Amino acid sequence: MAMITNLLMLEGIGVQNWTYIIVGLTFSLYIGIAIWSRASSTKEFYVAGGGVSPWANGMATAADWMSAASFISMAGIISFAGYDGAVYLMGWTGGYVLLALLLAPYLRKFGKFTVPDFIGDRYYSKVARIVAVFCALLVSFTYVAGQMRGVGIVFSRFLEVEINTGVIIGMLIVLFYAVLGGMKGITYTQVAQYCVLIFAFMVPAIFISIQMTGNPIPQLGFGSELADGSGTFLLDKLDGLSTELGFAEYTEGSKSTIDVFAITLALMVGTAGLPHVIVRFFTVKRVRDARKSAGIALLLIAILYTTAPAVAVFARTNMIETVSNKPYDGVPEWFKKWETTGLITFTDKNSDGKIQYVADANKNELIVDRDIMVLANPEIANLPNWVIALVAAGGLAAALSTAAGLLLVISSSVSHDLIKKVFNPMISEKGELIAARLSAVGAVCVAGYFGINPPGFVAAVVALAFGLAAASFFPAIILGIFYKRMNKEGAIAGMVVGIMSMLLYMIKYKLGWFDEVLPDKSEWWFGISPEGFGAVAMVLNFIVSITIMKFTPPPPEEVQEIVENIRIPSGAEDAIIH
Amino acid sequence: MNNQQKATAYWKENIRYVLILLTIWFLVSYGAGILFKNTLNTIKIGGFKLGFWFAQQGSMYVFVILIFVYVRLMNKLDKKYGYDN
User: Fold this and answer.
1) Structurally, how many domains does chain A consist of?
2) CB distance B83–A219 less than 8 Å?
């Protein structure tokens, strides 16, 4: 300890060392928590014993939810998309309103361990359960591969190790606390990870907001006048700069209204249908705690999500001002540094020694990776080295917490929904716990494999995990709660049609496997992109479910009683024992 | 009121709250932030065009408020019907 303190006293301690220190400290914290919160029963492994406080669950949900994409990529995506970036902001927060009002309280009252549990029991059918398991695995695997890759990328950029080494280190850490602690270990490490990631995101944002606008609150800062005394509003200036360079006006965007609408809807509904988010609401004690923790989770998420568009505006303005039409020889140090990583590339097409950054692809000389907007932000703003290291620790916290939550869904789908409920109902409590741990190990290995050998289509598919969740789970759960007459025939047909139509649209218009070349945007149905098609597939699911239901027998009496029972909030504490 | 009637009355009130809150949810995001964005953009508050502000800030604040309003309404409703144990 004395040695570390001495080390910190040294001046001019490099970014690299700071990163080792901060990342090392946060990792020890996560491991310490994991050892303290080992799971000793399947109930602890699947739902942390069902006694997590609303605040702890809210923080864990927020960390679980905010992935490497939210932390590293989102602000950058918005800064290039301008107004269109709102689809992510509204889409990834609005879903919590649906969760709190339509799903969380009832699923908590139902009181089982997994989403396929609900589907299987409510629709009194093994087939329904297996379809749900398939959907849960498909959604979770596409999502988790991206997280492991994110861990690798953060490691490689900040600690200069191979991406693959980074993936393996990340795997070992997650393996340790997910396998040992199950949901219990994951919940309490996620609480710590939320603190790390929000601090790491807010510190640079506040610094930069003060620098650019003199306002310490980024949410207000990006609507303020510039600090240079010109009296111009920051957003007006950015609109001006964007149009000058041939881009769409920043506050206008370029996607069609119907596509913005569809993508926002697909992301909202997808959020509400993601198994790793839903399962978090099984961990609290009472129904009222489930509602409250959804509110807390969204409040904590909104802190980052309302800051991200501000960071996007600051970073975009800063970048244009720093590089546009400036001589290449005079660029700041961070520009050169990120150029060596390949995330900034400059080709002097007209050989005038200056950087032309314009919308016209033939004349544009600068390509900037969107991730830089957050990763290089502290350097662009000349912030101290420890802030840069903090951003690395924050990115890792975001990626690890999401990966762990997804791995738990995968392992419980296998050990609980498949092994215990379908193949071997006689399995003992102890046997199921071992099976759960082994499936967690298996899931980490598969995720790590995809992290190291990412199939070309993973990146393209991650964004579509939401569409898949929207198309499959959301209608089945909503109808299961709000429509007593809904039966297994309707629900199964709806889920199958929903997920298949989403998969086919995705394969045709996102991956282009059906044609020689990827079909053009003009061929999209109603002008809706694959990202937004989840909304259409969800509607299809609803229509098919209700139509089939009309022609098939109603569910048995005892199932209708389950539905009546979950609508009443009292007695949830007892319901979890089964 | 017997148990069945009580449960039905409780459910009806709950659904009414949900519908009102989801209408607001729809209006701030899909309404103000998307469908009526251009009209609202003619109004400016500080440096923000209003439609843009709803899409990238306002809708999210309203979402948070909506959930907490629902939490309060439902806690009261639970008490009223004796479901708060």
Assistant:
1) 1
2) no
Into how many domains does chain B fold?
1
B34 touches A at CB < 8 Å: yes
Mean pLDDT of A181-205: 89
- Compute the mean pLDDT over every residue in chain A, rounded to the nearest whole number: 85
pLDDT of A160 > 80? The answer is no
Residue A341 and residue A105 in contact, taking contact as beta carbons nearer than 8 Å = no
Residue A576 counted as domain residue: no
Residue A449's CATH number? 1.20.1730.10
Tell me which chain A residue has its CA closest to the CA of residue B47.
A223
Which of B18, B34, B60 is the closest to A102 by Cβ?
B18
| CB proximity under 8 Å: A 91-120 to B | 93-94, 96-97, 100-102, 105
Average pLDDT (A365-377) is 81
- Measured distance CA(A519)–CA(A522) in Å, rounded: 8
Which residues, 6+ apart, have CB-to-CB distance to A503 below 8 Å?
A: A468
Position A10 pLDDT exceeds 60: no
Residue A3 domain-assigned (yes or no): no
**Candidate from B7, B47, B60 with C-beta closest to A89:** B60
> Is residue B36 one of the residues assigned to a domain?
yes
**Of A66, A90, A238, which to mutate for an interface test with B (greatest number of B Cβ within 10 Å)?**
A90
Measured in whole angstroms, the distance separating CA A10 from the mean position of its chain's CA atoms is: 38
Global pTM reads 0.90
What the block records as the tokens of A237 is 């200036």
A351: amino acid identity, one letter: S
Residue with tokens 């009546």: A564
Name the minimum distance, in Å, from the CA of B83 to any CA of chain A.
5
Residues A333 and A381: their CA atoms lie apart, in Å, by 12
Contact A304/B at CB under 8 A: no
Q: Closest Cα of chain A to B29: distance in Å?
A: 7
- Note whether B33 contacts A105, CB cutoff 8 Å: no
Nearest to A22 by CA among A47, A4, A37, A39: A4
Cα angle: A578, vertex B4, B8; to 5 degrees: 100
Could you list the residue range(s) of the whole structural domain that residue B28 is in? 3-80
Whether B84 sits inside 8 A of A288 (CB atoms) is yes
| CB within 8 Å: B78 and A291 | no
- Backbone phi, then psi, for A367, in 5-degree steps? -120, 125
Minimal-distance CA residue of chain B relative to A295: B67
The answer to the question of residue B29 being in a domain is yes
Q: Is B49 at the interface with chain A, CB within 8 A?
A: yes
ipTM of the complex: 0.96
Q: Is position A81 within any domain?
A: yes
* A74-110 tens-digit pLDDT: 888 888 888 998 999 999 999 999 999 999 999 988 8
Compare all CA atoms of chain B with the CA of A78 and give the residue at the minimum distance: B56
CA distance between the termini of chain A: 48
| Domain with A365 in it | 15-570
- Give the tens place of pLDDT for each residue, A434-489: 888 888 888 888 888 877 876 655 556 666 788 888 999 899 999 999 999 999 99
